[in-house]
Design a protein that fits this description.
The protein has 18 helices and 13 strands. The chain has 463 residues and is of the alpha+beta class.
């Protein structure tokens, strides 16, 4: 198998997301390939191909995988599953069940309700769960087997250097100037009188709903400050085991009975009233109205004063910026990264265009090592916040080199080494499995090695 083909197959297997085309299954017309006792249906390949075309529609320079590539990906997965079973790797029923529930919740979120999902799919939630069970278990087993194959593969500095030296100098990537930025964010707290005023307003909303003056949906449209309210009318599908939702919101939701509306509940986002629409075990469907108590200039000024004091302590050497972030930052995400602004790939070096406009203006006159004065800005939820910004480092535009980009080069070299190990593993193990590929696909370049093994097996059977 060609190295790049193998890597591609794994990438699209892991990243492909099911959509409407894959929910609505068509009748399986025939088996087009097998690995051992695992088979691939033509209808599954065609459904997947249609889904990829839909996902790639309108995206320039991106070509959806062909049917041949999709078949190759499925053959790879089936072979890994067979070996995983042979090696007694195990996926627990709990893991599978959690993955199924997560997938169903995503679909319900996408289509608005369980009823809409069942109508679009043409079958019940329970039937869909059973349909997903085998494919999710297969995917988990193949992931485990792939991880087992490459788990102990490491990369040494000498290998990184050799890999780098093997690249033609003209082919080395060019990097724009990048910056390393760390921020300490604090959200001004509304005063108690303002919070009490908002609470009384929300109690009024609940009375309007209960007396029939207004519906929950009407009040969501009129008053909710949740940015997603326009799209989903405050609807959320919850699972008690999820960690993404605010704990107070989650606890308040699961205390309710079906149809009941909560008293105002305070979360890190503001105040909510929540209505429980339905509940099944650890799953619940709720609607909510969010109100964010307004912040006055006095609260902003008070927060700026706190941050100014922290800045003076850092400059005086009484604490470090990282320590101050861990102790004081209100930004949950930045606490995990030590306050560092991260790029899409998780790197702490980012291009200027990945920063928000207010930060770009702020660092314009700063140099590496500087700590800004407290800056007022609006976060990604439109809330007023105040931050200190530490301009840690700036790189100059350059062609990739080991001194500045060692980690990037090492990661690339490691992925290629792992891919080669997988390729070697397949060359050794695929002949151990019974392989059949329908004649319709024997001309596929992606399936050349698979067809060769299948042909050899057929020949041996004849003789």
């Amino acid at each position: 198998m060609k190295l790049f083909k193998l890597v591609f197959s794994f990438v699209f297997l892991v990243c492909a997301l099911p959509s409407k085309a894959q929910i609505k299954k068509v009748l399986a017309d025939k088996i087009i390939a097998t690995v051992g006792d695992k088979f691939i249906l033509k209808s599954d390949v065609e459904n997947a191909a249609a889904d990829y075309r839909r996902q790639y529609q309108g995206q320039e320079n991106l070509t959806p995988p062909s049917n041949c590539a999709i078949i190759e990906g499925n053959l790879i997965r089936k072979a890994l599953v067979l070996q995983a079973q042979k090696d007694s790797l195990n996926v627990t029923e709990e893991e599978v069940e959690n993955a199924i529930d997560s997938r169903i919740r995503n679909y319900i979120q996408q289509f608005g309700s369980k009823e809409s999902l069942e109508e679009i799919a043409g079958r019940s939630i329970m039937q869909m769960k059973e349909d997903f069970r085998s494919q999710i278990k297969e995917q988990r087993l193949s992931d485990q087997m792939q991880e087992k194959i490459v788990d102990k593969i490491k990369i040494t500095p000498n290998e990184v250097k050799a890999f780098y030296n093997s690249i033609n100098a003209d082919s080395l990537p060019l990097y724009e100037s990048e910056v390393q930025i760390i921020s300490l964010v604090m959200h001004p707290k509304a005063n108690r009188d303002v919070e009490e005023y908002v609470i009384q307003q929300m109690l009024g909303y609940r009375k309007q709903i209960e007396s029939g003056i207004n519906t929950f949906d009407q009040l969501v449209k009129l008053y909710s400050e949740d940015p997603s309210a326009k799209e989903n009318l405050g609807l959320f599908n919850l699972n008690r085991n999820e960690k993404n939702f605010d704990p107070a919101f989650m606890a308040g939701s699961f205390r309710l009975k079906e149809g009941q509306i909560s008293a105002p509940i305070k979360s890190k986002f503001g105040y909510h009233i929540i209505q429980l629409l339905s509940r099944s075990g650890d799953d619940a469907v709720v609607k909510h109205i969010l109100r964010i108590p307004p912040i006055t200039n006095d609260e902003i000024k008070e927060t700026k004063t706190i941050l100014d004091s922290i800045r003076k302590e850092i400059i005086a050497g009484k604490t470090t910026f990282g320590e101050a972030v861990n102790k004081n930052s209100d930004d949950d995400g930045s606490k995990f990264s030590g306050g560092a602004v991260t790029g899409r790939d998780g790197s702490t070096y980012v291009n200027i265009d990945q920063l928000d406009k207010e930060m770009v203006v702020l660092i314009k006159n700063m140099k590496p090592g500087d700590i800004s004065q407290p800056q007022i800005y609006s976060d990604d939820r439109g809330r007023k916040a105040v931050r200190l910004v530490y301009f840690k480092e700036r790189s100059e535009p350059h062609r990739e080199n080991l001194k500045e980009d060692y980690n990037k080069v090492a990661q690339r070299a490691l992925e290629i080494k792992k891919a080669k190990a997988l390729e070697t593993w397949f060359k050794m193990h695929v002949p151990n499995f019974f392989i059949y590929i329908d004649p319709e696909y024997q001309a596929c370049p992606e399936l050349k090695d698979w067809n060769r093994v299948a042909t050899e097996m057929a020949t041996e059977k004849v003789y």
